[in-house]
Structures are given as structure tokens and as C-alpha cells.
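Pipeline run #58 for the internal structure catalog. This entry was flagged by the ingest filter as a single-chain record with no existing model, so it goes straight to prediction. Upstream metadata was stripped on purpose; only the residue string is passed forward. Reviewer on rotation: M.T. Logging verbosity set to normal.
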Amino acid sequence: MECVAYATGRCRSCTLLDIPHARQVADKELALRDLLAPHTADAGAGIAWEAPLVSVSSHFRSKAKMVVAGTVDAPTVGILDADGRGIDLRDCPLYEAPVAAALPVLARFITHASLVPYDVARRSGELKHILVSGSPSGEVMVRFVMRSTEAHARLLKHLPWLREQLPHLAVASLNVLPEHKAVLEGEREIVLTERETLPMPLGDVTLHMRPQSFFQTNTAIARELYKQVAAWVDETAPRTVWDLYCGVGGFALHCVAPGRLVTGVEVAEQAIASARITAAEMVAAGVPGAEGARFEVGDATAWAQRHAAADLVIVNPPRRGIGVTLAQWLENSSVQRVIYSSCNPQTLARDLDGMPSLKPTRGRLLDMFPHTEHYEAVVLLERQA
């Protein structure tokens, strides 16, 4: 991938950019195999490895999380340097076309709507971040993360201009983050458009993303991840499946089948609302087995402890992993198979320490984050006698 910002030293976020992409993937797979080898029955020989799912090397990110700085007349949209000054990255080659096309328009919108960029050093101003998500259909969701609701009326007033300049805008919202702290967004969300969800068509399943819903960064690789997990599930034909940390229901809704009960559990209410929309659409469309999908709001660990175990459990936790309590519950349960999708294999390995009876038998690396040290891994764990 060629990047002017990297070549000129303006941005060095892609820490592996000097390493050929194929070498990056090979190194990550070797690291993953070494990491999981101690957790198999015979030093790694027990894992059947699928070929890595390799991403394209540029224009793969469906989400942009941009810091806003500078002034109303000359805003920067990108990151901050060590002194808190804005570095503009509208030309970043990581983003898919719909997201990339939105960034220069949004920079102009800052000036057009008189949105005052937040000054970290002075703790003054309003607009902190702009978060953009793109759909495979070409539509985008834009979220303005602001210090207060001061610009609410102004955003609504100038929204027609933004829609004219950005015809593929589907959802826009104002997120309120009054605190001065290093987080991307606040708890309060005010939707500015009639539509509240961004449809994400992924083959036979169209997921719905709300402003505060989690969705994978690399949609093309996410689509293949869902297909991989669904294939492993179908091979063993479990009668009951749990999808813990289900988000908007990606794994659960790809695993529906006649006679199968699939339950998704997620602590975020907005994500569960999105999952239920997709489930209802699938039932209406006559998708076989869709009526067996249900979704519940709750903490994954606490919810599991209150219910009789499923035949197969899918977990897709945040970077911290599933934790000691859930790992021990799975170890002591009657669950025969666990599919663990991990964005942090270090915590995956730690969690495997708490589940010594559940051994990884199949695995795959997913090149979700090219040019960085991060990657996604998915493993099938099977209970050993």
C-alpha cells in the first residue's frame, strides 16, 4: 500500500507498512500457532489450520474514527500529534470508497455549519470526533461527537446541505461527550435523520447497525469470518447454540437452521434491537430456521450462569477476553464445543488456561487489520475425554 502520509512522516499508525503484506500475514500466523501450541493435546499437532483469510492491502476499513482539530475555517480531520495539534488524514488509503469520499465533504461541513473543533490543550470548543461507517451497499453513517448539544439545532438546519453534498448519507447522529477524557464517544446519542440503522448486506444476511452498535472494521473479512463459523457449526449440527457477546447478531443469524435454537446475548441494548430487526426480516422472508433465533440483553457471563448449557457456544469478546469466571463455567459445563473468535490472541491463550478440557482442534487467522500487529483469530474448541 502506498501512503503519502506515512512516507512523509505525517502518520506512522500503520507500524508494519514497510513489511510486505504477505510477510505480515505469514509472521502473524506463525505467532498464532506458537501461542496456541501449548494448549493442544500434543504441542500443536492437534490443530487443523485453515489457510489464512487475507485482506486486500488498501481501502479495506469500513470505519473511520477521526479526531477533529484546527479551526472552523481550517479544520483537520485525522489524528493529533504529540503536542495535541491536528494532523489531517483525509487522504488516508485505508478506507473503503464510500468512507473515503465522505471525509472531505465532512471537513467542508465543519466550516459550513460553524462547528468549532475541540481544543484538547485549552479544553474549549465543541466537535471532538467524526465517526464514519460504510455499508457494502455504498451508504454511510456519520456521527458527530460533541462536547454538548449546543450545535444540535445547527446540525439539523444544515443537514440538507450535507445530504446534497453526500447523497449516500443514510444515518447521521449527534453523540454527546461532555467529559475531557480519552474515549471516542459518550453515552447519549441523538439521531438526526429519519433512519436509525445502516443496513449491512452480507450475502444472505443483512445486519443492521445503529450508531452505538459494534461492527467489525473490515467488512469483507467479517463476511468470511461469519461464513467460516457457520460452516463449523453446521458440520456438527448442534440443536442449541449460544452467541455470547453477539453484537448485532452476526454469528447467530448466520447459524440459523431448521430445528435449531440460536440465542444471542449482548449487554448493549441498541445492538440487540438491531439483531431483532434482522431476525424479523429473515422470518418475514421465509429463511429456514430464522424463527429459532432470539436475542437477549445481558452480561454474557451472568446470563450463562443462569441457564442450562447449549450444545455449542460461540464467544466473540472484546480485547480483554471472556475472563476467568466464564472460562471456568465453560470448563465445568456440559458444553461440547466452543467457537472462540478473538481480536486479541494473547487473551485467547490466557482464557484457554481456564478451559483445559476444551482443546483447539481447528483454527484460522483472519487478516482483519493489515499493516498493524493486530489480527483476528478463530478457533474451534472440542471437549476432550
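catalog note: Residues 219-236 form the longest helix (18 residues).
catalog note: DSSP finds ten helices and 17 strands in the chain.
status: ready for reviewer M.T.
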